[in-house]
Amino acid sequence: MTPQDRELIARLCADRAGLAIDPDKAYILENRLGSVARREGFGSVHEFVAAVRDRDEERLIWAAVEAMSPAETAFFSEPRTLERVVGELLPELARRRGGGPLRLWAAACGAGQEVYSLAMALDESPPAGASIELFGSDLSEQRLEKAQAGLYSQFEVQRGLSAQRLVRHFEAAEDGFALCLRVRQTVRWRRVNLMDDPARLGQFDLVLCRNVLGYLAQDARARVLANLQRTLAPDGWLVLGENEAAPGLNKAPGRRGFYRKQPSTRAVA
Amino acid sequence: MVKESADRKLCLVVDDSRIVRKVARRILEDLKFDMAEAGEGAEALAWVRTVMPDVILLDWNMPVMDGLEFLRQLRREPGGERPKVIFCSAENDLDRIRQALTSGADEYIMKPFDGDIVASKLALVGVL
User: Fold this and answer.
1) Is B5 domain-assigned?
2) What is each CA distance from A223 to A195, A196, A198, A220, B126, in whole angstroms?
3) Residue A269: is its pLDDT beyond 70?
4) Which of A67, A135, A155, B115 has its CA 20 to 30 Å from the CA of residue A199?
5) What is the DSSP letter of A213?
6) Quick check: is B3 in a domain?
């Protein structure tokens, strides 16, 4: 890749998805774009980027942007957070809703590991008296396709997933392990660019968006946080990574990464 | 030889492959574990009767005494309920993994493994 190639990709990523890509980190760009270039039939990343530039084709542009977007690749990342969601937040929300459905959204679920971790935890400990609607979204169509298939390699199922959960929730498949249908069918999918107006998604009682904000440019981070807030029910929770902050939202004391919608924004919601 | 220091956890790697033991040692030393090695279950039993480790990385198929038999005998030893046992085997059949867990293993690694997998499993059993 030439410096001009890297500048172009970084600019497209910023414009389309708010991603902060450092064009000087050539190895990251080469690594992420290499598989896209091969998949699209190009002999090199440079040829692929030249096509992105010359053809001005939305499909190719998005293939590049999606490949550069962050994704969680481990199951049960920051496990204490998920334990709190399932053991504390959802039972409390279920009591408040009095039996009504709880709508949950994993906003950047990658190839499914994030949202399926929640789905498995809910299968093991469903909150009493609540029905759950669980949504998974990602910027990348490729990752969403993989997520919906629920097929994972031997390496993937050993990152964060306990052997107990592997034997409980997975079946042997030809090239790895398949998440059982019972868990898979609890999740509904949608491609979502977090920079876009989320009104079409409706309101959520809890939004998980962990370890994504750090990959965004500062102005994009503010816009994405505002978008996520707008999807929250008046007493809804936004759950970020343990080391992430959401200025303007109420931080839950003693719970890193947990934010509740501020009363002042309720009238707007 | 076991290298031990006061504040570090001790891991015993039990595997008849010198290469696997070498790879595991490199990963575990990077993770700040002290290390001991045994080539099969009977040798490992002799180790735990001298020093009970915090965690054991245990191969399944080995000469003299296999991993499952070692695990049964370990759990009968004084203090033998304490070490976390992570089976580490080329067997990737779910029924074999179930068998390991019901026999008293805490976790299971399917070979080949890398540093991320070992670190992930050590965290799951609470020693990292």
Assistant:
1) no
2) 7, 9, 11, 5, 38
3) no
4) A67
5) G
6) no
Domain count, chain B: 1
pLDDT level of residue A253 (50, 70, 90 thresholds): confident
* pTM of the shown model: 0.92
Residue B44 domain boundaries: 10-124
- CB-based contact A155 B107, cutoff 8 Å: no
Same fold, A3-68 and A79-265: no
Partner A contacted by B94 (CB < 8 A): yes
Residue B62 lies in a domain: yes
Q: Using a CB–CB cutoff of 8 Å, tell me whether B101 touches chain A.
A: yes
- The answer, for B121 touching chain A at a CB cutoff of 8 Å, is yes
Q: Which of A158, A167, A170 sits opposite B117 (nearest CB)?
A: A158
The residue extents of the domains of chain A are 3-68, 79-265
Burial zone of B60 (CB within 10 Å; 0-12 exposed, 13-18 middle, 19+ buried): buried
The pLDDT confidence band at residue A56, using thresholds 50, 70 and 90, is confident
Helix (H, G, I), strand (E, B) or coil at A173: strand
The CATH class for the domain spanning A3-68 reads mainly alpha
Any bridge partners for residue A216, and if so which?
A19
The CATH classification number of A79-265 equals: 3.40.50.150
Mean of pLDDT values over B40-68: 97
Residue B100 belongs to some domain of the structure: yes
- Residues B97, A158: C-beta atoms closer than 8 Å: no
Q: Tokens for A266?
A: 């309720």
